[in-house]
Amino acid sequence: MAGHARAFWVPHPGKGEIRTTEVPDPGPDEVLVRTLHSGVSRGTETLVFRGGVPASQHTAMRAPFQDGDFPAPVKYGYLNVGVVEAGPPELAGRTVFCLYPHQTRYVVPADAVTVVPDDVPPARAVLAGTVETAVNALWDTPPLIGDRIAVVGGGMIGCSVAGVLARFPGARVQLVDADPARAAVADALGVRFALPADADGDCDLVVHASATDAGLSRCLELLAPDATVTELSWYGDRQVSVPLGEFFHARRLTVRSSQVGQIAPARRGRRTYADRLELSLRLLADPGFDALITGHSAFDELPRVLPELADGTRPALCHRIDYPGTPGSTNHPGTPGDEGE
Predict the structure, then answer these.
(1) In this structure, are residues 105 and 32 in contact, taking their beta carbons and an 8 Å threshold?
(2) Are strands 148-152 and 203-208 parallel, antiparallel or unpaired?
(3) Cα separation, 327 vs 276, whole angstroms
(4) Chain Cα centroid distance, residue 318
(5) Sign of the CA dihedral running 170, 210, 14, 62
(6) What is the C-alpha separation between 213 and 215, in angstroms, rounded?
(7) Which of 167, 172, 224, 319 is 20 to 30 A from 336, comparing alpha carbons?
(8) Residue 102: which of 67, 73, 52 has the closest Cα?
(9) Distance, CA of 236 to CA of 246 (rounded, Å)
(10) Which neighbouring-strand residues pair with 174?
């Protein structure tokens, strides 16, 4: 065995704990990874933490390396950056991204990790899974040069979409959110900011990521005739009211869903999941994305931090988790043997 590791689990909704787990020796086509950082996806992960995944979505919502089942006990997460400690020569010592939960060390197939480009800091690379969602959304409803675009909802997903769109040729991109503090994030990304009442209308494309009825209603109001709202919000088990009266039919508006679990039809058959993730990591060379990481904590603090993220007492976009031994980490070293020593 490669030793032991520590992993974050939700033993029942609303409670987290760290458990010790055994890590096997990697096989010929596997890698042993030591985690440097992981990211908490405040929307999806806090929904999981609260036990809010609908029974009908238990299979669809499974993370690639999830242990346990919804609602609990479950080990869940998918934003993990680490260093390959053992594996094929071309990967040994490389910094990689993997869709793995919060765990100090783990073994996965070699093709489950993606090398982080040299110009992307590991601490920023935890955003790769979220930027991948943004890439897929823009494959679902591709913008055109010079489009007027609004992103409604300045959370982790919405800001990622805005960051990807910021360099799109000739586009007028605005990030719309009810929180004025999101203006600083928009500025770092290089896009305009507007409160919902002040947002510019006549949009060719609106991306919705606020997960609120009011946000979706405002999206429809901002659309030009024959234009589309791309819906990225995940509402879990909540019912949503959509205003399909008034101008909806007269202006021939469209509401389209987008979900990262499948490659968008526009690229399906021509791009693989690996291609999409590699592209997302390349986009993270832009330092503006650092604005999406709004806090960080030690791995050992996760059982206390996640409830605060879930109930809103700790506001965050992406909250980064730093692991023992990572340069600059605030973690306390684990007890001897915990990390396979």
Answers:
(1) yes
(2) parallel
(3) 29
(4) 8
(5) negative
(6) 5
(7) 319
(8) 67
(9) 27
(10) 150, 192
Q: How many CB atoms lie within 10 A of CB 166?
A: 18
The encoded tokens of residue 132 equal 């991948």
Quickly list DSSP for 145-161: TT-EEEEE--SHHHHHH
Q: Which amino acid is at 181?
A: A
Which residues share a beta bridge with 255? 229
Write the burial class of residue 71 (CB in 10 Å: 0-12 exposed, 13-18 middle, 19+ buried).
middle
- Residue for token pair 């997903």: 157
The pairing of strands 203-208 and 254-257 is unpaired
Q: Within a 13 Å sphere around the CA of 15, how many CA atoms are in the beta-carbon half?
A: 6
Q: How far is it, in rounded angstroms, from Cα 72 to Cα 219? A: 35
What is the pTM (predicted TM-score) of this model? 0.91
Residue 170 in tokens: 């000739």
The tokens 């390396």 sit on which residue? 65
Torsional sign, CA 75, 82, 4, 23: positive
Count of CB atoms situated within 10 Å of the CB of 102: 26
* Cα 62 to Cα 75, 98, 272, 330, distances in angstroms: 10, 15, 19, 30
Residue 272 to residue 263: CA distance in whole angstroms = 7
Burial of 28 (0-12, 13-18, 19+ CB in 10 A): exposed
| 97 contacts 125 by C-beta, under 8 angstroms | yes
Cα(100)–Cα(79) distance, integer angstroms:
6
CB 88 within 8 A of CB 110: yes
Using the 8-state DSSP alphabet, how is residue 268 labeled?
Answer: B
Which residues, listed in sequence order, are joined to residue 283 by a DSSP beta bridge?
Answer: none
